[in-house]
Amino acid sequence: MEKSIITRNITKKYKLYNGTKERLLDLITPRSYGKDFYALRDVSFEAEKGDVIGFVGINGSGKSTLSNIIAGIIPETAGDVTINGQVSLIAVASGLKGDLTGRDNIELKCLMLGFNKKEIKALEPEIIEFAEIGDFIDQPVKSYSSGMKSRLGFAISVNIDPDILIIDEALSVGDKAFAEKSLDKMKEFKDKGKTMIFVSHSIGQMKQFCDKILWLEYGMVKEFGAVEEILPRYEEFLKVYKKMSKKERNAYKHASKPNQALTV
Q: What angle separates helix 102-112 from helix 117-131, to the nearest 10 degrees?
């Protein structure tokens, strides 16, 4: 089958500083300041055209970082990403400019994706109808609730008909009716053979919607495979993890993470 996403040994490193002074010294002096933090380490996986892959993992495991790298929003520190097709990321307020109105954001995002004025004019009514934000479409996005931002972002992304759709917790805000409508739209995409990445804490939605699961743990791939194989093990892990004390969780994290002195 045709590959739509190929990631090879993706690593993302950030520097953590104790204040602005340390950040400036790291820029202007030969000595290294700050502490290296690896959001991702040597992450590799492939998606076939038509795959629906769920990203799971406890908070801080690198799910959103990996989503943003695949979407081209942030660069990887090391490794390679190959994308075959147009990617659209749906996250709360993703790509929306707060000072612009919802209508202006529709035009801006579509222009950035290569649509012309005539095409945008044709798409706009469908996007506005799907978003269900009423008169707020002509108000600045900074006045929107998180649910309204999510609905507008989702409406734009699904109506531009991308080849690869990444949904990062975008259905975790807003009302149940809109979430169900969005899932129906995603099923349409699935039937069309689109590739989708689904980031969510909802195990139920994962079971209902995904074919494969990528389980990330502290920035590394814990497991990758079929939903029926990976999700039961992840659910068992969550039961144990939720019962851990803060001290036990820290000990587990320390035991799970490799030496931070990785060079990239």
A: 130
Where do the domains of the chain lie, and which CATH numbers do they carry? 1-85+165-173+198-264 (3.40.50.300)
Q: What is the pTM of this model?
A: 0.82
SS3 sequence, the chain?
CCEEEEEEEEEEEEEECCCHHHHHHHHHCCCCCCEEEEEEEEEEEEEECCCEEEEECCCCCCHHHHHHHHCCCCCCCEEEEEECCCEEEEECCCCCCCCCEHHHHHHHHHHHCCCCHHHHHHHHHHHHHHHCCHHHHHCEHHHCCHHHHHHHHHHHHHHCCCCEEEEECCCCCCCHHHHHHHHHHHHHHHHCCCEEEEECCCHHHHHHHCCEEEEEECCEEEEEEEHHHHHHHHHHHHHHHHHCCHHHHHHHHHHHCCCCCCCC
The tens-digit pLDDT sequence of the chain (264 residues) is 689 999 999 999 998 888 888 888 888 888 888 888 999 999 999 999 989 999 999 988 999 999 999 988 899 999 999 999 888 887 655 678 889 999 999 999 888 878 899 999 999 999 999 988 889 999 999 999 878 888 888 888 888 878 898 988 766 655 677 777 888 888 888 888 889 999 988 888 888 889 999 999 999 999 999 999 999 999 999 999 999 999 998 888 888 765 444 333
Cβ contact 213:225 at 8 Å: yes
Question: How far apart, in whole angstroms, are the C-alpha atoms of residue 141 and residue 104?
Answer: 10
